[in-house]
Amino acid sequence: MVFPFDGLGDYQLMFKAEHEMFRKAVREFVEKEIRPLAQQIDETDEVPRPLLEKMAQQGFFGLHLSEEYGGQGGDTMMTVILSEEIARVSPAVTVVMGTNDLFSIPLLIYGNEEQKKKYLPPLAKGEKFGAFAATEPCCGSDVAGFQTKAEKKGDRWVINGRKMFISNADLADYLIVFARTSPPPDRRRRWMGLTAFIVEKGTPGLSLGMKVHKMGLRGSHTWEVVLDNVEVPDENRVGMEGMGFLIAMETFDRTRIGVAAQGLGMAQAAFETAFTYVHQRKAFEASLASFEAVEFSLVNMLSELMSARYLTYLAAYLADQNRPEFTFAASLAKFYATEAAEKIISEAINLHGGVGITTEVGLEKLARDAKITQIYEGANNIQRLVAYRQLVRILRNKGVLGGGSSGEM
Predict the structure, then answer these.
(1) 170 domain residue, yes or no
(2) Does residue 274 sit in the same domain as residue 378?
(3) Alpha helices, DSSP H, located in 8-112
(4) Would you call 406 helix, strand, or coil by DSSP?
(5) Residue 141 shares a structural domain with residue 268
(6) Can you give the residue ranges of the Acyl-CoA oxidase/dehydrogenase middle domain (predicted)?
(7) Is 250 a catalytic site residue?
(8) What's the total number of domains in the chain?
(9) How far apart are CA 255 and CA 43, in angstroms?
(10) Is 363 found in the same domain as 254?
């Protein structure tokens, strides 16, 4: 055993020829269609609709969905490649795609066939967009503490509550909403009693509250969502009643790999920018790259970048192999890659000196964007807890670890 895996083979990464072909195709699209708009997207806080339509034509929105539901049938590795390449130029654009995944993944895992056939094809084609309404003003990382309620009346549910920090709520045609349908049996099992529902745009009682003005990821909008006696039929319930917490957690297990890829893309962009600059810039009649301190700095940045890349792609590979270890690897990748991005971006700014803080270089935008990735879809300290608890759970199931407290919920 090579703890915490069974052997050395568990640390391998296997790529297919189509993975590299796909990366090159995405890079070409990004450089041609997104890079010229990146500064505009940040300044105007808008992703142009024509750009989204071009992305839809490329099949980007249905990448992870099977052909049966109008998608491309891509794997997790391809999703990571797509997120990394786009985040390298415009992280905000990746949020539009990632938010769609937050809606579609619960349906893929827990939805019935009617729900999948109704909602997934329009998302895959980029004709409709989805959002994930979980976070509430009272509770960020504490999903079990949600206060939004859904009461059953006949064959319908009436939902009341407020959601906060909901990405792309204004763009979304469909939202998956988490609400409490029964009180928890006791304090230890407070996560029980939550249920997931699909709420369509235009449903009476569903409205947007205030727009959240944030420091980064401008172009992706974040809103308060108000549910005032919103009625949905029972057929809009996703999964079994009371399974909402597990649905949310299993969704995050998969989507946080995409957030790690966002951090990786930003880190890659900052490193490339710094590397190019120090070889062009001269000081004291010598290239900056010739100074030992600069060389040390670049190598430190590169070690962080390569470590983040390995963790991110390992999590994706394990997910594609349906290995249970992907859950704790995903949490490791999420907090490590997003924190590595912040370090690399900060050092890239230092290497640029005064030029580094100007908007033209683009590093200050990356610094603003990177900080948010450390918070959403599970704040990084929460990811440390999740990684540990998932690891303990897996080792127990393997019989490697005996009983005792693991801090599990």
Answers:
(1) yes
(2) yes
(3) 17-29, 38-44, 49-57, 76-87, 91-110
(4) coil
(5) no
(6) 131-230
(7) no
(8) 3
(9) 27
(10) yes
- CATH assignment at residue 89: 1.10.540.10
Residue type, 94: T
* CATH value at residue 175: 2.40.110.10
What's the CA angle centered on 271, arms 267 and 277, to 5 degrees?
Answer: 150
Task: Give me the torsion for CA of 389, 394, 397, 401, rounded to 10°.
Answer: -70
Give yes or no: residues 123 and 136 share one domain.
no
pLDDT score of 284? 85
Query: Would you say the pTM of this structure is higher than 0.85?
Result: yes
Q: Which residues of the chain have pLDDT under 70?
A: 1, 402-409
pLDDT in tens, 138-173: 887 778 788 999 999 999 999 999 999 999 999 999
First vs last C-alpha separation in the chain: 28
**Residue 7 to residue 369: CA distance in whole angstroms:** 37
The tokens for 138 are: 């009272």
Residues 204 and 266 in one domain: no
Residue at 371 is within a domain: yes
Name the DSSP letter for residue 30.
Answer: I
> Looking at 85, 339, 342, 377, which residue is catalytic?
377
Instruction: Give the model's pLDDT for residue 6.
Output: 85
pLDDT at residue 403, as a whole number: 60
Contact 359, 39 (CB under 8 A): yes
Using CA atoms of 152, 240, 316, 77 in order, give the dihedral in degrees to the nearest 10: -80
Are the beta carbons of 187 and 145 closer than 8 angstroms?
no
In this structure, what DSSP letter does residue 223 have?
A: E
pLDDT value at residue 408: 41
Range of the structural domain that residue 221 is part of:
131-245
Same domain, residue pair 254 and 390? yes
Tokens 């710094």 appear where? 274
Secondary structure class of 317 (helix, strand, coil): helix
Last residue of a domain, one of 128, 144, 174: 128
Q: Which residues of 294-324 are buried (b: 16+ CB within 10 A; e: fewer)?
A: beebbeebeebbeebbebbbbbbbbbbeeee
Determine, yes or no, domain membership for 293.
Answer: yes
Q: Is residue 337 part of a domain?
A: yes
Tokens 């995903």: give the residue.
Answer: 330
Q: Which two tokens stand for residue 375?
A: 């918070």
282 and 181 within one domain: no
Q: What is the DSSP letter of 176?
A: E
Give yes or no for a contact between 53 and 126, defined as CB atoms under 8 angstroms apart.
yes
Beta bridge pairs of residue 287: 282
Helix (H) or strand (E) holding 208: strand 206-212
**Residue where a domain stops, chosen among 245, 275, 307:** 245
Residue type at 392 in one-letter notation = V
